[in-house]
Amino acid sequence: MKQLYTYGRYLKQKFHTKVSKLPIGLSGFTCPNIDGTVAKGGCTFCLNDSFSPNLAKNADKTFLNLQSKSNPILEKQLQELDTQIVETRKKMRSEWDTQKFLVYFQAFTNTYAPFDTIKTLYDKALTYDDVVGLSIGTRSDSVTDEVLEYLVELSREKEIWIEYGIQSIYDETLERINRGHDALNAERAIRQAKAKGLNVCGHLIFGLPGENQEMMLNSAKAAYEWGIDSVKYHPLYVVKNTLLANEYKAGKFEPISREDYIDTLVKAIALKPEHISIQRVTAGIDDDTLLAPAWCGLPKNKMLDYINKALMKEGWVY
Ligand code: SF4
């Protein structure tokens, strides 16, 4: 069996030790697709303040955007950053034997804030012991030239990644999920980041409304051609209190089956150039916020077993 080229292997080869992504979610960050700058409500599958009663309780929080002139919660954000890095690093060291870390700004759109805030947070994250770099989750319409140039500067000394949600290359799909940008926007952002020498991870979703397998594989092929260095594959699942949940309940959306997802995944991997590392082969949630499909609530190990069984038929293992 041939071991697939995973992101973990990439990092191990580069740093000669185990490196893990350390996820961070800070107050004050939101998304232009939620706050009304691009659209309101966000992507139809996204659980956010607009549709979640729990999150709405925090509606008096300060949210930043690209036009924010000041940041009254910077100290709070730095405190949160410190707590999350220190606590998660300790846990990862003891549970996974991780030696080095990439701080992963994960929740919402992590370049959607004034430059000074972004710079302060990124700089601070890079001061911690054993932090070798950053991975920044964001949208392709939300990275200013100033931020991009700063990431390029940081990348001279550190391991710097940008993660863009591509999801699909079909504009009709992107409209249907209220993505708020078209495929060309994602392509341009990826090509621009690559032209500047940055590392780019692209996120793809299989099972989007109205898509057949050919479309899903075309999206994967295009993302590879645009130059991504790493890929995350996700199935689309329905979370309660989202726009997608309404579509699902109204019978307007049918989730992808486990068999179809795995078949698409294996075919997408077969099309993938060898040098593109794989960061994720599935996603799910194991709490009662999941509405459908039920298989997205399977324990991760169980799901990986199913995926590996399918991959083994091709002579691969994840
Ligand atoms: S871009 Fe991300 S954070 Fe923004 S609405 Fe879509 S899924 Fe939610």
List keywords for this structure.
alpha/beta, 318 residues, two-stranded parallel sheet, single chain, 11 helices, TIM Barrel, globular
Could you explain the architecture of this structure?
By secondary structure, this protein is of the alpha/beta class. It has eleven helices and eleven strands. It is 39% helix and 18% strand. The strands form three sheets. The protein has a seven-stranded parallel β-sheet with strand order 2-3-4-5-6-7-9, sandwiched between helices. It has a two-stranded parallel ribbon with strand order 1-11. Strand 6 (199-206), helix 8 (213-226) and strand 7 form a beta-alpha-beta unit. The radius of gyration is 19 Å and the shape is globular. Mean pLDDT is 95; it is low at 51-59. The structure holds iron/sulfur cluster (SF4). Iron/sulfur cluster is lined by residues 31, 33-34, 42-43, 46, 48, 108-109, 139, 165. The site of iron/sulfur cluster has 11 residues, from loops.
